[in-house]
Amino acid sequence: MRPFSTVLWVAVILGSGVLHAAEVPVEHPPFEKGQYVHHAPTVDDLMKDQEIKPQLKKVILKGRDIFMNTQQYRGKYVFSRLSCKNCHLGEGRLNWSGPIWPAATTLPDYRGKNGHVNSLEERIAGCFSFSLNGKPPEYGSDMMLALSAYHQWLALKAPVYETHIGGRGYSSLGKDIPKDIHYVQGEKVYQAQCAICHGATGQGKSVEGKVVFPPLWGDDSYNWGAGMARVYTAASFIKNNMPLGKPGVLSDRDAWAVALYVNSQERPQDPRYTGDVKETREKYFNFHQYTMYGTERDGVLLGQHDNTGAKPFLKPDALRPRTFDE
Ligand code: HEC
Ligand code: HEC
Questions:
Q1: CATH topology of domain 1-30+170-321
Q2: Helix/strand/coil (H, E, C) string of 156-176?
């Protein structure tokens, strides 16, 4: 299920041990009774599907290409060194790795994060603005059409407005950080289990300009407003997906600790920044109650800076309120 090139790199870095490690079973949380369990189609299925017109296939494949290699738009729509697929593994279809297709069957709907009804395009724009620390392509553009087509095709045969979806999102560990989870423990886990790929300072690794291991913090990573900046989201993602090739080896406590460690490092500013980190934390407390933004670590107030990473602006225009009051 992992792209071959990544597996190859992992093998290069970790030696033959990785093949053995890949056999460690992934203990994903079980589906609950009454939940809809989806089997998203593969590219093979797409090529064989006689019902889908060739013109549409082309657009779906374009959307997939943008999703898998969003870095081709670095400096235009993406200012981090991340691509969509880095957090939505298995081409966006893996359970407990934020499968993306549910957005196509459950939107438009109200979203607490921005307090209004969102379309699929706006949801995609959210991940551009926060997760990729970027600027979304224009609504209605060819790129948005292609990305929407990819999401919608992955949802093939799924029921519309079904919300009891097995494996949706990431948060299998719940939202509350267990007591007695410590930063120092997280640092130990990080150096032992993650640094080999993501680098000692979370910077990731690129070879000849191509990202091999994505950065976890610093200027090239997701910004303070990204869903992954919430400790619980990262903890669950890490528990079910990392270390790459042997997910499931971390205990719940180690997953929480390392998520706390990663998300207590600096990263580009939240695009919703008001100029004062404590004020911004308060204003978006429904989100930031789960992040370390605006809290102190070793006497330093996290997020109190004007650094937007490689992005030459703070807030993309696409992030705007909508009201239907007129
Ligand atoms: C840094 C990690 C990260 C990257 C990179 C990322 N996302 Fe996400 N994405 C998330 C998280 C975390 C959530 C869940 C957010 C939440 O719970 O509010 C999410 C949610 C989504 C959803 C909603 C899924 C649902 O269940 O409704 C879609 C669609 C989506 N992302 C698409 C994209 C696209 C398209 C890109 C690239 C343009 C992208 N994401 C890049 C982390 C990421
Ligand atoms: C063998 C190499 C390897 C190891 C070890 C590893 N990762 Fe990853 N990690 C990756 C790769 C590659 C991706 C992107 C996956 C993809 O695109 O399919 C990734 C993605 C991620 C992401 C989402 C993308 C981003 O940059 O934010 C997070 C968070 C993450 N890893 C955290 C961790 C943590 C924490 C550990 C240690 C417990 C860890 N990883 C261990 C290779 C690794």
A1: Cytochrome Bc1 Complex; Chain D, domain 2 (1.10.760)
A2: CCCCCCCCCECCCCCCCCCCC
